[in-house]
Design a protein that fits this description.
The structure is a homodimer of 321-residue chains. With 321 residues, chain A is of the alpha/beta class. Helix content of chain A is 54%, strand content 12%. In chain A, helix 6 links the parallel strand 5 and strand 6. In chain A, helix 3 crosses helix 4.
Chain lengths: 321, 321
Amino acid sequence: MLGLGLIGGSVLRAVTAAGRPVWGATTSTVDASEAVAAGYPVEQTVAGALRRAVDTDALVVLAAPLDAVGGLLATITELAPQCRLTDVVSVKAPVADMVRRHTPLVRYVGGHPMAGTAESGWAAGSEDLFRDAAWVVNTEDDGDAAVWRDVVRLALDCGAHVVPAGIEEHDAAVARVSHLPHVLAAVLAAVGADGGPLAMALAAGSFADGTRVAGTRPELVAAMCEGNRDALLPAVDEALGRLGAARGSLASTGALTATVRAGHTGRQALDASRAIELVEERVELTGATVPERLRELGRRGGRVIGLEEHAVVVRAPRDED
Amino acid sequence: MLGLGLIGGSVLRAVTAAGRPVWGATTSTVDASEAVAAGYPVEQTVAGALRRAVDTDALVVLAAPLDAVGGLLATITELAPQCRLTDVVSVKAPVADMVRRHTPLVRYVGGHPMAGTAESGWAAGSEDLFRDAAWVVNTEDDGDAAVWRDVVRLALDCGAHVVPAGIEEHDAAVARVSHLPHVLAAVLAAVGADGGPLAMALAAGSFADGTRVAGTRPELVAAMCEGNRDALLPAVDEALGRLGAARGSLASTGALTATVRAGHTGRQALDASRAIELVEERVELTGATVPERLRELGRRGGRVIGLEEHAVVVRAPRDED
């Protein structure tokens, strides 16, 4: 574990609890001393942790913010240029690009655990942070199958289920459901507050809910959204298109029915995805189409919940085809 | 009380609990029979309730959806053309316009209790629905001072506090904090769901919170937003402007800092308005500037909490001037 903040620290705890060998390192002296005080194995330096990973061919996990990834990759290039590598950064294409540029020999499969809190740092973590959460594991046609298994095992050890997804489709999905919500919350909060104390005094649940994430530390939100720029732009454009259509309809015919109905249908899709019955299946990990079959599973709302020698156990909605 | 649904039924209960004489009528046989079964006084017909109001010069409360207001006003024109009248509809200019057109002799002061649930009908109501809620009372320069007192008394009897506001400024404020949130939630829900089951599987708290109100019955949301069209259009335009600026900045420099910071400041304004210390004052109800002084109180986040013969007791943030 390179990085022992909220995510890295929680992974270290969860993997330890699962009874698997793991060790961490971080440049944060606060996180390091708190982890040591809690009895977890922490190497003195990132270099030391990496050398130990090379000796045992261990999976290296980058658990750092996007802007710290480049520096860590430079160290990896120097000390562990062919290591097994994954990461937990919330955007995948920018990390994959950096890996390709900085450490082309590394065996890399990206990941993204969909869990977190408003807090940060070792102290905010827990071994249960990923329990029942989705953990996206990048599933590319040219991905390293052995490292893919390592990352799936890591996610399952943490209590998460695995959603297989390609790099681009992951970034497009989180642009819609993680980053656009922050942009729209910011817009709503600003327009609302421009109404002054009277508007704030009349604000009720709809405004409070719609602006909740605007209370998150602005530097974190801006960095997260900016890091997914290529995928966020088309999502913002879709929102602009829909909002502009609502505006036009309201101004011309006075009707908002189409906008409101589409929103209601969208919200029902979220509720349905959480209520849908999932059926257990096994997917054999043989043949050239494995990555595409796994991505297709993710696209229809399925997930990997178990790992066997030549197969994965999955849960998925019944295939309608 | 004309109308015994969620709001009207809750007012009937609360005023009864406050020990003041009140009676209701409704065209909904379900609401009427449930109210009677619960022991509340319900007239057989709206006409009967109105005749009784004329006999006692009682305050008539329109507790019906906007699209039912015209029909009730026609009955009032016929049977009680000079009655004291208020309403609880969530937009004020359209109701005031209808009152002016249909019943020009009526003594009308509009109101809007800021409370509700996703449910509707008598059965969903309670005598505590308005406890500690804001109840906007329209405070116009040419308003009827006696009826204004009636409506303030009604709101206080229901356990609410009164926010004095002009008709237009009320509609502008709720466009920002009640109606725009519904439009943006609909846009977000639609764009998110367009990402398919994969996006829904990765949706977490930010998407769930930002789309919660998109789960409300679409006919209710559309009618509510469309009813405030004149005030909602400029609020949507402000949102379009801010979202377009975010898009431009993200596409050109890659930065979302300005958008995110403005949103954070806006959300802090909401939190501050809920945490601010309010100081008790008395405002004398004498002189021609009373309405403007009361509106100014509302504009700086103040509220009326008590009614005396020639004054109101208010709570307000310290005046910085």
